[in-house]
């Protein structure tokens, strides 16, 4: 006999409009496993501990923290919690490898290098550098690495106290190693940021040879088929009754954005990603110009991941002209539309 939903506790985070991250607590009273952990900040950890007490979970019973992906608001709170509670940390294998092999400062340096190649003017890059949280949390990631997290990957099983076994599925895209945790018995999936109810999870491009949006669309397709009708427990916001419906909606959003970028390139052949990003209809007042520096950073990464997807599909070509990447249609717009639709059918 296993209880209903795990407890959902919101940990405060100082990131844009998000406000908080969901931490899920599975407990049988004596032992507790947390999924995700909030941020490397006194207030974030404090709100999490208070929240656990409020639902009747003694923080001292936490023996393990499982983290869905390496983003600062999900992972870095664990550095404080594991030190204080002696808990074990487990992290998505692909993200752990990146964290240990590349490190956050080098990762961000490469991201900025790619943005410069993408035609981002120096003043916009400077603005982004000043506002990026990645630089401020280098210390936090160092503390996480020092804990020696254990890797988790496809097919691993985690026993949740009082709730039975959860299966690990790899759902790359939002980060290269992102995992979700599924209970087929309870028809429930812990999603991290793979599927969110109110916002579109960010998909950036970290290296020009990768195809994170392609990976992400395959992950959405997996969620829509393997967990159809399941309760979705997201990293931000409220539970979703049918996670598959939301996954399909997100797929449609990306198909529309791919089509929008094809349209932009049909009018502006040989554009840089920066020029494309300025013309995309971002859902903020004022579009591109209404975006804060961090928003511009995300929007550029998003544009690049879509351009790269179109390149992999054979819809666009990438040229390097005087140290800048430029993109143009490789097929006529009609064929572009059918290539996009075909790929969507394959993955959906
Ligand atoms: Zn995230």
TrEMBL record:
SUPFAM superfamilies: Metallo-hydrolase/oxidoreductase (SSF56281). Residues 20-236 form the Metallo-beta-lactamase domain. CDD domains: TTHA1429-like_MBL-fold. Coiled coil: none annotated. It comes from the Archaea. InterPro entries: Metallo-B-lactamas, RibonucZ/Hydroxyglut_hydro, Sec-metab_biosynth-thioest, WH-like_DNA-bd_sf. This is Metallo-beta-lactamase domain-containing protein. It comes from Aeropyrum pernix (strain ATCC 700893 / DSM 11879 / JCM 9820 / NBRC 100138 / K1).
């Amino acid at each position: 006999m296993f209880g209903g939903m795990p407890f959902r506790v919101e940990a405060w985070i100082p990131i844009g409009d998000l406000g908080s991250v969901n931490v899920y607590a599975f407990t049988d009273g004596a032992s507790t496993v947390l999924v995700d952990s909030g941020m490397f900040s006194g207030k974030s950890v404090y709100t999490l501990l208070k929240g656990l007490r409020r639902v009747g979970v003694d923080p001292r019973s936490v023996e393990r923290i499982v983290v869905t992906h390496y983003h600062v608001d999900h992972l870095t709170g664990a550095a404080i919690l594991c030190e204080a509670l002696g808990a074990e940390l487990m992290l998505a294998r692909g993200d752990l490898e990146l964290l240990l092999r590349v490190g956050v400062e080098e990762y961000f340096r490469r991201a900025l290098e790619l943005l410069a190649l993408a035609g981002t003017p120096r003043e916009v890059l400077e603005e982004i550098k000043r506002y990026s949280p990645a630089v401020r949390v280098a210390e936090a990631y160092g503390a996480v690495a020092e804990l020696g997290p254990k890797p988790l990957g496809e097919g691993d099983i985690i026993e949740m106290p009082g709730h039975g076994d959860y299966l690990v599925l790899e759902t790359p895209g939002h980060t290269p190693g992102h995992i979700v945790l599924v209970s087929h018995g309870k028809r429930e999936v812990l999603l991290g940021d793979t599927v969110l109810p109110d916002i579109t999870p960010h998909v950036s491009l970290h290296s020009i040879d990768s195809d994170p949006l392609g990976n992400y669309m395959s992950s959405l397709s997996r969620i829509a088929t393997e967990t159809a009708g399941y309760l979705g427990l997201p990293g931000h916001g409220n539970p979703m009754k049918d996670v598959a419906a939301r996954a399909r909606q997100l797929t449609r959003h990306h198909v529309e954005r791919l089509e929008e970028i094809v349209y932009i390139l049909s009018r502006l052949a040989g554009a840089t990603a920066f020029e494309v990003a300025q013309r995309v209809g971002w859902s903020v007042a004022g579009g591109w110009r209404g975006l804060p520096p961090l928003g511009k950073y995300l929007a550029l990464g998003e544009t690049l991941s879509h351009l790269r997807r179109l390149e992999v599909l054979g819809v666009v070509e990438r040229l390097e002209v005087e140290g800048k990447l430029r993109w143009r249609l490789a097929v006529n717009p009609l064929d572009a539309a059918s290539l996009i639709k075909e790929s969507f059918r394959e993955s959906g």
